[in-house]
Design goal:
- The structure is a single chain.
- The strands form 5 sheets. Strands 3-6-9-12-17-19 form a 6-stranded parallel β-sheet, with no helix packed on it.
- It is mainly beta.
- The longest helix has 17 residues, at 2-18.
- The chain has one helix at 2-18, and strands at 24-25, 30-31, 36-38, 43-45, 50-51, 56-59, 69-72, 77-78, 83-86, 89-92, 97-98, 103-105, 107-109, 123-125, 129-131, 136-137, 142-144, 153-154, 159-160, 168-171, 176-182, 187-190.
- The chain has a single domain (2-190), classed as Hexapeptide repeat proteins (UDP N-Acetylglucosamine Acyltransferase, domain 1).
- The chain is built from 1 helix and 22 strands.
- The chain starts with a helix and ends with a strand.
- It is globular and about 50 Å long.
Length: 191
Amino acid sequence: MIKKIYKSLNRRIYYILNKKKYRFISSTAIVQKLLRIDGKENISIEKRVVIQKMTWIAAVPLTNEDNCELSIGEGSIIGHFNHIYATKEIIIGKNVLTADKVYISDNLHQYENIELPIMFQGIKQLSNVRIGDGSWIGENVCIIGASIGENCVIGANSVVTKDIPDYCVAVGAPARIIKKYNIILQKWEKV
């Protein structure tokens, strides 16, 4: 009982101290001890979102975009040690579940100049990232400049660099669709 009261009090204190720093944060969101957070003013965290320990979230316009946004939809759970970095737009839908150690980004480091260390070459903007409502992102998945539809499953250790449509199971590096839900037959089918 005391532990529950302590957790509730911590959540309330976090909300009070941070509500004006975020673009939006719900009073029912649970943000556990983060590894790092950058660009709070560009981050929205909706109702009943849980962001688990040691996650790094950021929304910083490193590619000089006019707008930069990271939005985590209602009821979503972000696993431990996730790294989510928006330089333009990452929208995570409602009731999305990410396992631990997931990386989501709408950008990557430039590497065109072979005479210059990659860390000095700047950031390249990729496509906006959207993860549809109800999707599940497995352990160690990387999503880089690609979107995922509603109610998708992305298998552990996959690297998503191309869009995945609604109701699909995708695995591998690079990720490829192995199952798709057939709405007419109302069953999952191998692709």
